[in-house]
Give the backbone structure.
Amino acid sequence: MTKKITFIIMALFFIQVSYGQKKSRADRFFEKGDYINAAKYYEASIDKERHKKDIENIAVCYYNIFEYKKASLFLKQLVKGQFVEKGKTYNNTYNFKLYQVLSALGDYETGLDYFKLYKDNLYQGLDKSESIAIIEEFKLKNPDYKIEKAQFNSNASDFGAVKFNDSVYFTSDRDNKQLLSKTYKWTHQPFLDIYKVKVDNKIDTIGAPLALSKTINSKLHEGNFCFSNDGNTMYVSRSNFTNGKKEFNDQATNNIHLYKSIRVNGKWSELEKLPFNKNGFSYQHPALSLDGKKLYFSSDIEGGYGSFDLYYVTIDIDGFMGEPVNLGSTINTVNREHFPFISNKGHLFFASNGHLGLGMLDNFVSELVNGNFTKPINLGVPINSQYDDFNLNYYNEEEGFFSSNRNNRSDDIFKFNQTGEIFIREYINTFKIKDFETKAYIPEARVVLLNKGEHVIYNNTLSTFNLNLLASKYTLQAESEGYYSGVLQVKVLERENQEHVLYLKKIPPPPPVVIDPVETVIAEKKIDKNLKEKDPERFALLTDIEGPPVIEKDGKLYFQLEPIYFDFNMWNIRADSKKILDALAAKLERYPKVHLKISAHTDSRGTTRYNQVLSERRAESTRNYLALEAFINARRMQFQGFGELSPIVPCPMLNCTDEEHQLNRRSEFEILEY
């Protein structure tokens, strides 16, 4: 749906003159923007003869109607030269489109090959390995937002939600039930209108959405909009009208222009075109600064960096507007930048497919520092996906809306709550080296801290130290005389005053009599000495004394850990269990062939179904801690919840003590392979 407004000009780029032939029926549909019908007729003609123009146009058709699998099929044929013309060259833009559709289909690594080719052709270059690492970071970073689909979505495209007072305003192409209403050729849906719905403090709807009056909504498109702080001025993206008639550019396209309406006595005035609009170009997605002195928007006017750039105009006290000012190359790219929004702190949120992202349009933020916008930051998952994600705005410090077509071809509105810090900050971290048994500080410990790239960023000889660190993963190493050396995997989160403790185990004094510890274990566990030859891996596990021991029960091997307990009704890993799992992780590192089954059990309080679900979450939480915090390959671990079915202490009539219930809330670690 975003392409309804934003691609009207772009589509003209792909309209090419037939090769000395009469325009086909597919060509005529294509030139009118009816990509659904155009694709149907191109399919028929391509079956007979494969002309480059037809392959280009059908690829654009499927791209514009979100049929990304079909678009990728024809784009691949184009870049591979699978057409009848002898010249196998093609426009560089198709490399970018293939990168986008492959990313949308989940194959971003292959897509990056075409993005690199696209960049190389522009003499810009791209490091694919670095780009993959950045994209993975977008996907794996701790989410800064919680999202939920808004209640007032329809089966049509809904986007551009803006909350003002007790109502949410949004844009939609839902059926407005008007007689003789026209449909938009691109989508075969009604034209876009602006709607309003009342909501409560949870953004649940009160009543049905209603279209705004005909002074705002016309027979053609009304797209994105914004309000002044007092709510009495509205700026609207709208199909270009003058004196009630559509205006067309030299290519017979009706562009999008920006208009203004004033509310007087509760009624909106007729829309007035803003003075800086010029015929032949599109101006859209208005956004006001907090003080109302700057109006930001997206436009393809001449002199920009790409197809659509972000601009602003100043508004003086009398309402006079200056000329558009481009936001510059830090924000704008050779591709598309849309949907600006200025937060209360002056930060710029916008959507782009030119900055590195997860697929199609992604949401970005640029921090306002000393009056300038900084390098944009991708907001990551879940705000962004491999599809179009756009139109993010806040209605208070932490809550707002954005739009996405991630669930279907049509756009939906999502509400969000910001839960983390979106800008890069350094956070205070305290590191301590302590004795594993006594918990006392170990003086003169030699410490080394490595970053994610395994570069040393700190080393010293001490027992505790503080560092300001970016949110990321680090490795702490420590050693001291009389102790085993230790390693702690550190995950710095976006919060202050984090503490990380590395416990070192003392090296025991030499025994008065040399005793083979393996022989001792063999005797204690009654291990068959022939096992060393029959099954050396099993023998090694059973006789290894470092870390959690391995025991045998009923012919199966288990790691014998101190209990991994969970709080009542909870599944998060408690602090007292983390060091136990860290010790297990260290041993798993030494036995890379070992595969585990993590079994979680609950007490008998709660329903059987609830306890089953809770135990599954606890098992998954344990697996996730080992995978994400201790860096053990998740493929080595299975997990399963058993609910209340196998208690250590039976509790008929729930007559157990809290301590007995705690014993039943446990995890077990069975070795499946070694």
